[in-house]
Amino acid sequence: GKVYKGHLNTGPLVAIKRAKQGSLQGALEFKTEIELLSRVHHKNVVNLVGFCYDQGEQMLIYEYVHNGSLRATLSGKSGIWLNWSRRLNIALDAARGLAYLHELADPPIIHRDIKSDNILLDDQLNAKVADFGLSIPLSGGRDHVTTQVKGTMGYLDPEYYMTQILTEKSDVYSFGVVMLELVTGKLPIEQKMYIVREVKEALKETGNIYNLVDRTISANTVTGLKEFVGLAMRCVEDTGDKRPSMSEVVKEIERIIQASDFRAIADSTTTSTSFEGAGSDVHPYNSSSSSFGI
């Protein structure tokens, strides 16, 4: 569906997401977002203000997040420059939002589509996790669900892709890809190059990760880069049991920020395509895989 900017009679700006009429998938995502977002409240998760369901019209009304998506900012479209300290704080904010969903929401929630397009930045550049249309609650004490594979190629957990078993660690993989985006400024799949594979090869061949840093930031300012990239690579391990939990990721990023002597800002003051299918026993990002042109 489409997203509109508007304001309530009480004054606040809002974002209005209008589902495409007659779309079964849109109706399912509409219902999912209402059910999940009405139960979650965290400063790093976008706030659902209300909804409309009337005569076939389906609209979700969110708080308006002024600076748009992280992807738009990294691509230069927003006109906002992110220095290294801001990137670290954005990573921390998003990690806190995800950790809340995994460990403090009741029931826990797997987002299933974490990507830089779904991380929004407010007027203070605080990050908020958004777009819960594909999300799944882990009710009844379950730690996984078996489900049709959905998500965005480039961010999609290869273990989930190959087994159809979705866990919180699938979000951790996607978040690791976002961390690498923050370092490089690049899309996860760009000109048939896969960001995770490129970083792995650079680490293996030369160990020099400074050549990977986004050219808009000075390499001599990226204190804690080695630790940050190391954490990202743990997040993108092929198997979930080797990945950290999101609460562990939060602690590690906090440690990196403290060691780098960066203060949280104001308290913290493509070619990637959607995927839906039955999964495959072939790794989605291996160089031998030709299914997605990578």
TrEMBL record:
It is a single-pass type I membrane protein. SUPFAM superfamilies: Protein kinase-like (PK-like) (SSF56112). It is found in: Membrane. Its main location: membrane. It is an enzyme of class 2 (transferase). Its EC number is 2.7.11.1. Transmembrane segments: none annotated. Gene3D superfamilies: Phosphorylase Kinase, domain 1, Transferase(Phosphotransferase) domain 1. It comes from the Eukaryota. GO terms for molecular function: ATP binding; protein serine/threonine kinase activity. Residues 273-294 are annotated as: Disordered. Keywords: ATP-binding, Glycoprotein, Kinase, Leucine-rich repeat, Membrane, Nucleotide-binding, Repeat, Serine/threonine-protein kinase, Signal, Transferase, Transmembrane, Transmembrane helix. One of its GO terms (cellular component) is membrane. Residues 1-257 form the Protein kinase domain. This is non-specific serine/threonine protein kinase. It comes from Opuntia streptacantha.
